Amino acid sequence: EEAERLGRALGCKLLRTSVKEDVGVLSVFRHLASRCLMEMRRCEDDFQDDLKLYSTGPRSPSVI
To answer: Which of 14, 24, 45, 55 has the fewest Cβ atoms surrounding its Cβ within 10 A?
Structure first.
């Protein structure tokens, strides 16, 4: 089908849903929530790495 071809071409996951028929809504919500949590954790890890680098790295010269 056209939607499946487009999804593959774009590297997107195709999730069929119907709120009216209550089909696939929960799985889409879980998928999106999971992706959001992964992104939040990645950003938190990046921040912690930057913080460690800043606190242990070479000091910049003081500005007078």
So the answer is: 55
Q: What is the pLDDT of residue 28?
A: 92
Domain containing 41 equals 2-54
| Tally of structural domains, the chain | 1
20-30 pLDDT tens trace:
999 999 999 99
The alpha-carbon radius of gyration of the chain (Å, integer) is 21
Nearest Cα to 24, choosing from 37, 11, 14? Answer: 14
| Residues in the chain where the model's pLDDT stays below 50 | none
User: Is 59 inside any structural domain?
Assistant: no
Cα angle value 10/16/19 (rounded, 5°): 135
